[in-house]
Amino acid sequence: MPARSTTRRLSLLRRWARAIGHRLTVRHQRSPNRTGTRHHVGVPQHPVTRRSAEALAALIRAGWNVHHPPYGYTTMTVGEAAASRRGNPRTRLTPDPRRALVVQAIFYWRAVTGLSVERITARLDADPDRYPPPGTHTSWPPTGVTAILTNLKYTGYQAVGTRDEHGALRPAEHWVLSDLPAHRALITPALFWAAQSPATSVRRIPHRLLTPDHDHTTGHNREETP
C-alpha cells in the first residue's frame, strides 16, 4: 500500500507540473501580443519632444549636417560656423573623393543600365579596392546599396524624415529638406528619381526637387560609364 500511495502521488505531481508548464507557456506566448497592443495604440518607444524636433528641422533647413555623413561624403566646418549647445562646431557635407565616385557609379548602373540591386552588389564586391564597402563591412550588403539609392542627400540637399523604417521613401509631406542646396551634389534629381523603383510615381510626389530649376548638374557626363 505505501508503494502504491507513493506512485499515485508522483503521478499527481507529474500532472500538476505538466499543467503548470502549459499555463506558463501560454502566458509567455500571450505577453508579446499584449505588448504589441500597447505599442499599436500609440505609446511611443522613443519619445522626441516637439521642441527638439523643431530644433532639428531648423538645422536641416539651414543646411547643417546633424547625422553621420552618408557614404560618399565627409564633414567639414565652414568659416565661423555656429556651435552646438555642447560647443561642437556645426558641419556641412563635402564629397569624399574616393567614395563619391562609387555613389555615382551605383546610380548610373541602376538608372541608366537598369541593373538590379543584387547585380550592383555583386559588381561592387568584385572589385573592393575600387569600390570600398561602407563602414566596417568587408563586403557590400544589398541594404547598403538600397540605402544609397534612396538617400536624397546625394542631390545636394540636407534631408531628414524621407525614409521609413524599411528604407522606402515616405510621402513628401513628411520630408524636411534644406531651403537651398547645402553641399555639392553627387547626382542630379533627375538621376535620383530615375534610379527609384518603378512603383514610385514621380508625378505623385509634388516637391521642388522635381522642378527643372533645381536639376543641378554635378559636372559629370551621365552618358559615360563611371
TrEMBL record:
Q: Recorded GO terms, molecular function?
A: DNA binding; DNA strand exchange activity
Residues annotated as domain Recombinase: 70-205
Q: Which InterPro entries match?
A: DNA_bind_recomb_sf, DNA_bind_recombinase_dom
One of its Pfam families is Recombinase
Protein name, per record: Recombinase
Q: What is the native source organism of this protein? A: Amycolatopsis camponoti
